[in-house]
Amino acid sequence: MLRLLIVLWTLSGQLYAASDIRGSADSNLLERFPRSFIVQYEEIKDHDYRLVLGGLEKINGVLAPEKQQLINGDLTRITYRIPDNHTPDEAFESFTRQLQALSAERLFHCVGRECGSSNQWANNILKYSRLYGVDKTQQFSASKLRNTYISLYSVRRGNKRVYLRLDLLESALMDLSEALISGVQTELLEQEAELSQISDFLKENVSKRIWIISHDNQEGGRQEQLDRSIEAAEAFRKRLIASGVSEERVLIHSLGGFSAAGNESISGISVVTEDM
């Protein structure tokens, strides 16, 4: 009898995990939580995505993220139903550990009521009403891995069901060599590999010089952000000069935590070339 119960339990788990909606798939980046299944799935090409980088607050009488960035790219949305005997935090931490193992950069994180209203997250930000749950059970994070932005949101509904939303946006970036030629400001993703490419470009194009533009939107005051971004730009400049590029052809500009309105920056370095 005990053996029969174990077999039935195993089969029920397999059925539970096999109930994905038609046409859905896991991401190539992150593995699903054990025995969870996909209840909502969407792929959108060339999408303008609102990446949330702060909690919700009232702006002109309307609840909205206190900080966000609009990023264009290819979006994949996956909503998982988590097994009933697991908490939202367990599912969230499972994905978080995977992101940490991949050395993803966490840009924002909130827990419980500090995130704001779950109703707003579900209906206005994530656009899926089943994600409306109990405020104190919710958790959200935004992360970045190379040119992919990852948003995670988990919550327990009033009916005790647990859901986790995974958004992955692969940003549309111009090839670095093309950007250097055209003078378009381009974010550096793999600085070690790109440094030699920039150095070679400058050696081959003697009438060009380069601006290193650094920004830092991590925790800390404005001066601390500015100091960190200057340090990052100076370090990259020194490495370019050490590669054989003359000092007068490598300029720096630090934004710290500031950027143009509506285009909040994330920590990093970008470059742009111009004629001397």
TrEMBL record:
Keywords: Signal. The keyword Signal applies. Residues 1-17 form the signal peptide. The keyword Signal applies. InterPro entries: DUF4892, OmpA-like, OmpA-like_sf. Residues 190-256 form the OmpA-like domain. This is OmpA-like domain-containing protein. It comes from Neptuniibacter caesariensis.
